[in-house]
Task: structure prediction
Amino acid sequence: MQAPCKKIADTNHSLLLLITAGLGWAIPGAGYWFIGQYKRAIIVFVTITLTFTIGIYVGSIGVIDSVTATPGILGRINPWFLAQVLNSAFVFLISNITASGGYPVYGKPEEIGQLYTSISGLLNLLCIINCVYAAHTRYFSVGAEDRC
Amino acid sequence: MLSKAVIILASFTAPEQVGMNAKTMLWMLPLAAAIAGIYKAVKLHEITLKSFLKEAAVLFASIVVFIIAAAAALSLITYLATE
Result:
């Protein structure tokens, strides 16, 4: 299946890159799917989703905590949350549920859950950046028309 | 069906029991596999099942070996410092 090159190439450059990044953030791998790299999209989706799911299974949804009790450099924003939110917009929904403080988690489960969810978020950031770069080189570099 | 879905969702609301023993180190394996898989998915120019699995397995093994070597070195330093 060929990506809709002509349609995409006619769109504004920045807008296309923003849509690619936004899709990659909303659903892991969706950015790759949008630019026609379906195998990469499936691998990214499965891996990121599985890693994030393992994280919240071990540590419970309590590891998604946007506010920290002790203010730091970022004020009351939990630094772990900045990495976790890169997984998907869905993380905001979970943080709303856990904001009440009804899902306490401590010790090893918290550590492992935070590591899994945060690292999967950072891996998704890597994918988003790579995906945007791939979209740029595919549709807007010299000879892009030949590749479509 | 609904009760099964509720049970599955409920398992995400309470943390699992994770001990403080050597087996806890095994939790690094799925994470190392995820890192290897994503890195190779991003890096490989052409993705085929065989090449992807091979490259990801090599990177996974490299990460695990390096972590074991780092753990051994740190243990040795701790042992020498506390003896």
The helical segments of chain A are 5-10, 13-26, 30-34, 38-59, 79-84, 90-98, 107-140, 144-147. The two ends of chain A are 12 Å apart (CA to CA).
